[in-house]
Each structure stands twice: as C-alpha cells, then as structure tokens.
UniProtKB/TrEMBL annotation:
This is PLP-dependent aminotransferase family protein. InterPro entries: Aminotransferase_I/II_large, HTH_trans_reg/aminotransferase, PyrdxlP-dep_Trfase, PyrdxlP-dep_Trfase_major, Tscrpt_reg_HTH_GntR, WH-like_DNA-bd_sf, WH_DNA-bd_sf. It comes from the Bacteria. GO terms for molecular function: transaminase activity. It comes from Paraburkholderia denitrificans.
Length: 467
C-alpha cells in the first residue's frame, strides 16, 4: 500500500493535470484525472488517497468540489472508503456478465449528465403540455408539425435552414432505409455501395429483393469514375453512402470528393441515400451531400447513435416536400407510426435544450474513450483528433479478423470483424471496436487491455501443429 501523505500539502498530486475551462466542471475533471492515473498505472488498487481537505488545498478548490469528485468516483467504482483508514483506489469491479460487448455501435453514457433527471423532467413536460388520450392513440406516420419542426432545428448544424415540410420523423434508421429502398427501386434493381458498408443496408436490400453492387473506393472514399462505370454496368438508380466517420472505418469523404461524386450522380440520374449518424461527432466535418445538392439526396440522421439508443427516432430530409406522401405510404405498410411518447420526448428535448446537453455529454465521454483506446491499443496518445464512437483497428499479419474475433470471444470480449461489413473478396485485416457499450471507462479499460494483450501475441490458430 502506497501512502501519499508525504506529498507537500500545497503541491498538486502527481496524477493531477491542469484544469481546462473547456473540459467541464472541476469535480468531473478531477474524476478524469483519477481515471487516467488508474489506466496508466500511476495509481493502483490499494493506493491510499490524501484526505479530502488536503486534496482541496492541493487542487486549489473548495471542499465541496472534492466531495462531489469522491462521490462520482465511488459511483464509477474507482475508489472505496475504508472508514477511519481513509479512501483507497478500488479493486477492479468483478464482471459477472458473460462477455464485454465491443461490437455494438451505441453512444456511451453522457459524461456529467443526469440522464434520469432529464428523462423525468422531459416526460413531465410532455404530460403537462399534451392530451393523454391523443398521446396514446394512433397517429399517422411522419410526425406532427411540432416533430418535424424539431427535426429541422436538430438538423440545422448539418444542413442549415431546412423547410420542415421536407422533414419526416421515422421510427429509426433501419425502417427509413427499408422504406426508401421500396420507394425508390424495383425488385431486382441494384443499389450501389462502397466495399465496406453498414450491415443493415444489404440486409434490408436483400430481404426486399434488391441487389447490392460494390463500387471501388480509395483512401478518399468511393471513386467517382467507378461510380459512373457501376451505374452503367448495373443500370442502377440508387447509391448508399455513409460519408462522415463512416461505419466501420471512421473515415470521412473530403469535400472535393463529395463534389465529384455529386457531379457523377447527376450525370447518371442517380439518387443518393446519405446516412449521416456521426456528423455531429466530427471535427470540422465537410458539408453533407444534402447541403451541396439537395435535389439528389435523401438525408438520414438518427438520434440513436448520438444521444441514446432508447430514442428510436431518425429524421429524414426529402429532396422535395412533394415526395413525402409516397414515402409515407411505403413506410406505413410495415411501420404505421413512431411511438408517440418517444417522439414527443424527442421534440421536447430538442426545443428545451436537453438534447444538446446530452449530446455535449456524449461527445465528451466519446472523446475520453477515444483517448483511452489510443493509449491502450497503441501505447501512445492520439497523433490527431479522432472522434466518434468506434475504432477501426488494423491487425498484425499473424491475425485474421475472424481468428481475432474468435480469440476475443474466448477471452470474454466481442468485437466485429471486417467480414461483417465487407462485400466481395479480400476483406481488410481489421476489426471494428465500439467504445460506447461498456457501462463505464473502468470496464472499457479492462476490455481494451485484454484486447491489447491478444493483439501482442500470435494467433493460436497459427500455432497449431498438424500431424
């Protein structure tokens, strides 16, 4: 057991960092210092922390700030109180769950946000402002006028001012994708995609009797020349793109390439589905395709990937408000309406600022988890900012994606191999690691350390001796 009482009372602890105004409340920054120190080994299980009053003096904050820090650190299972002995770094929390899932791409719990209170207050406001009978009855799909206005407001950072008549509220991205495929193509038609694609798109297309055809891509995304060639070859009328922090690679198509792809799509009379769930996480992202050439693009943005999966609401922006009736007719054939209470809560949160508050917390937590992943998987800090909620991890030559996924499963982890996303032959030697599914950074740290240890050793499949 190490004792930190020998540190001069007026000196900051060795594990502390300077406070930054942009990093949120100081009590949460102190918790962050603790988490980083535990992750890097500066603090270990059983280490005793200085008394709260001494820490308050060392950090130059009041005692209340330290007390709040300790309360939050206990909630995250970072520290434990042992009565008169003091406060100690806690032992790692025992994980009784069968596996830690690093395969589900969901946003992390928002840092510094009391989600329970926001839910309680939001639903209370909805109930105060709504007629319960009307709220609980059937509604035509597409959302109310208030829902569409909330969608337009939410999409303003991406698209600027949007006519709410072009906005449709949908019960999630997958339902919207299926409805767009049915509305814009015929059975047997081809839908063009990049070689690596969100698995929900080919699943929906093939279930609906459409073909998915791959268009060659390079480091900047889908190649414009290959797009036009594929359009002619397959007589395609629809292309699917996930251009910003793409799932699974986290790559972003540069603006110049976006203009080239739009020009090619216009020459081929192609329509574009732009699936853009991660734009709000990106640093200085290029303008969406829908803001550059709105008459060609059906723009999708879901709340489930940037706030919380429980908000099964996606906003679709149509090229023209006159397209709404045709789209909604198809959507209602398998999804009559969104859940009224969820839609009303989303609308309330967008208008009262709660959605922006949750987004800020999710982004802060996602950035901290990206830092943690970079440190534990590469042994160094990120060379440049990398946002979003997933990591595309290239593998050493002695691992294949499926072998690593199998070995990870044996170690109690779940990761997504590149084969889950790749269409065609020769998938990249990589896996996608999702950072949001772990309940807290401590659990994520445990999982990433296990994965890092796996990556450092040869695949057991390569070590088998055949006789």
């Amino acid at each position: 057991m190490r004792n930190f009482h020998k540190v001069p009372v007026d000196s900051p602890p060795s594990w502390a960092s300077p406070f930054l105004d942009a990093d949120g409340p100081r009590y949460l920054q102190i918790v962050g210092f603790l988490e980083r120190a535990i992750t890097t080994g500066m603090l270990n299980s059983g280490d005793r922390l200085p008394p709260q009053r001494q820490l308050a003096t060392q950090f130059g904050v009041d005692l209340t700030t330290i007390t709040r820090s300790f309360n939050e650190a206990r909630r995250r299972h970072l520290i434990e109180a042992r009565g008169a002995l003091g406060t100690f770094i806690a032992m790692p929390k025992a994980e009784f769950a069968q596996r830690i899932d690093l395969s589900m791409n969901i946003p992390p719990p928002p840092a510094g946000v009391d989600l329970k209170s926001l839910l309680r207050n939001g639903i209370s406001q909805v109930m105060m402002r709504s007629d319960t009978d009307l709220l609980m009855t059937y509604h035509l799909g597409g959302g109310s006028e208030a829902d569409r206005e909330a969608g337009a407001k939410w999409l303003e950072p991406m698209l600027g001012c949007v006519d709410s008549a072009r906005v449709v509220s949908c019960p999630g991205t997958q339902a919207a994708l299926a409805a767009l495929i049915l509305a814009l193509t015929q059975p047997g038609d081809a839908i063009l995609t990049e070689p690596l694609v969100y698995p929900g798109l080919p699943l929906a297309a093939e279930q609906l009797g459409r073909r998915v055809e791959v268009v060659a891509a390079d480091a900047h995304g889908m190649r414009p020349d290959a797009l036009e060639a594929a359009c002619r070859q397959h007589d395609a009328r629809l292309v699917y793109l996930n251009p910003t922090l793409q799932n699974p690679t986290a790559a972003t198509i540069p603006e110049a390439r976006r203009h080239e792809l739009l020009a090619g799509a216009a020459r081929c009379n192609l329509r574009i589905i732009e699936d853009d769930p991660y734009w709000l996480f990106a640093d200085d992202p290029p303008p969406p395709f829908a803001s550059l050439m709105p008459n060609l693009v059906y723009y999708l943005s879901t709340m489930s990937k940037c706030l919380t999966p429980g908000l099964r609401t996606a906003f679709l922006v149509l090229p023209d408000s006159r397209d709404a009736d045709g789209f909604l007719t198809v959507l209602r054939s398998f999804s009559l309406m969104s859940t009224s209470l969820t839609s009303a809560l989303v609308t309330q949160w967008v208008h009262d600022g709660s959605a922006a508050q949750v987004l800020a917390g999710v982004k802060a937590e996602a950035e901290a988890r990206q830092d943690l992943a970079a440190l534990l998987l590469t042994g160094r800090a990120r060379p440049s900012p990398c946002r979003g909620i997933h990591v595309w991890q290239l593998l050493p030559s002695y691992w294949t994606p499926n072998d690593l996924a199998a070995a990870a499963r044996e170690a109690g982890l779940v990761v997504a191999p590149s084969t889950a996303f790749h269409r065609g032959t020769n998938p990249p030697n990589a896996v996608r690691i999702s950072l949001g599914g772990s309940a807290d950074r401590s659990q994520l740290s445990t999982a990433l350390k296990k994965l890092s240890a796996l990556l450092a050793q040869p695949s057991p499949a390569r070590q088998r001796i055949l006789v």
